[in-house]
Amino acid sequence: MADSSSDPTSDTNMLPPVSLPILNLPMQANRRPRPYLRIRHLKRWLNDLPTADCQRTAVQFIRQLETLNDSNYPAQERASLMDNLRPLAQQLINTLSQHIRKSEIPLSQRGLERNRYLQEILAGMATGYKLVVNALAMSQPHREHDDMLLREGIYFASQYLARQLLESYLVYLPEPKNTWLELHQLYQYASDTAMVSLPIDDPFPDISIPVASTIDLVYKRIVLLALAAPYHLMKNEAREFYYLLSAWASHCELLPSHNLPCEGEFSLDANADSPPRFVSSEIEWVTDKGFIIDIREVQQRLDVQLQRILRANLMELEDRDNHNLMQQRRQRDMLLRLADAWQGHLARSCERYASKASIELATGLNASHHYISLGREFSPEQDELRIRSGDIEPAVFAAAYRSALQKDRRHHHHDYETNPWWQRNVSREGAALYCSVECPKLHTAVGEVVAYCDPDQPPLRWKLGVVRWLRATTENQLDMGIMNIADSAVPVASKALAGCGEGTDYFRALLIPKQVSLQQRRCLIVPANVYDINSVLAINMKQRIFHVKLKKLLLSTQTFSQFEFERVEAPPEKAPDIFLL
Question: Is the pTM higher than 0.90?
């Protein structure tokens, strides 16, 4: 550990003493390493690696990093060695990350192994640059070239530490130990030495962005992501936000919180191994070196971006031929979730109770529909044909029947399973659950709709909820928070007759009836990115069909949308096209 301060100097023209950053560093032998690694030897070794085999290359790369970090090299030579490792490090990081991002949560054993390699590469690269920072920070005075190496060392160490956090958030694993503390410490040292805003020449950036590469950018970007509650983000959203925030990070301000009230503010402690957070009235916030995070200007820029998308979305809402509309709606919903996260956290409105009860849980809209309908066959096309058989000419009935049968077969032969979960605590608004996830079939995601019930209290009464957050462990235990949506739902089928989604076939959907006692509004749960506000749907309840117009978006995730609706008459001009063959 490098945990000390530079000695006061008698020269009054020099800057006041600056505290060295607290960094977790490996113990090193004082003697010259054998063999002594030269740049030409390292380049030859890199060229001989089996780069087509990512996993094998990663193992050898990690071993070389460990040897290098455990050996004693002058700061200038170490910086040069690390710079030569960066291109391959970047290639391995991107390849491993891409494989992991495609994996289900919780990770399989292979996924966990890949994640371990990824974290070891990131940690090893960060350590190499931390060693450069530590050596140069303790040596005075500096030559001009040393100042540049020190600045680059802080930048690259911070970049790899921040990437460690990002990759952990993407798979809902815990933040690596000491990562936040080291990030805080490196930033504070750079701030005290007036280096945070100086541009860095980064020949291998993780993304091309039209802003200067600075220590300030790297630090504030991960701070803003942490304020977005990354364990509440949906699959791969943390990565999208991380790079989106590059354009806004410079507008985030850190204000020393000495003698300032922090309640109701976003804050961080630069001397603690913890992420920034919203300080609510429910927690006691005491810091050694605290800062209030002012994100008002960032929020304004997010609001401008949202308004631009909403205006474009409104103008193109009825344009069925606009292929960009689905992507715009997805981006709109994602930014709305970010805006909501940055509002801070309100106090809990109801009390939580400890519980050890077990529940059975079905994940996904289709599975929830299956169990709420008690496993009845889903055949909406045949149901519609039966309901409207009197309106169909006998000459076309046989063809209409064959078409309906063919379409309904797409919904058959799906095995929907439930999994046992155990409660940690429960409230009127939701529950915290956990599972040891020894079953390889268990997969879930933030934003999934779930149906759950008490298996010990027949008849089974399925409630409806949504996964609000996930936290995984390297032992493959999964913690999950669900928010209640409704105490009951009616399984239906939906098909758009006008507006967004027109021309699609039936989908499984859930109708939530109005319940005044539960403050539950009448609404529909439908697949994501199919319909939108003003879509007119046919709702098929097997025995009858009625029509609705979607009026208000209540909740949107990557897998489902929840809309309020109003009853309407069927669009008369669409009637002849119902059984188009």
Answer: no
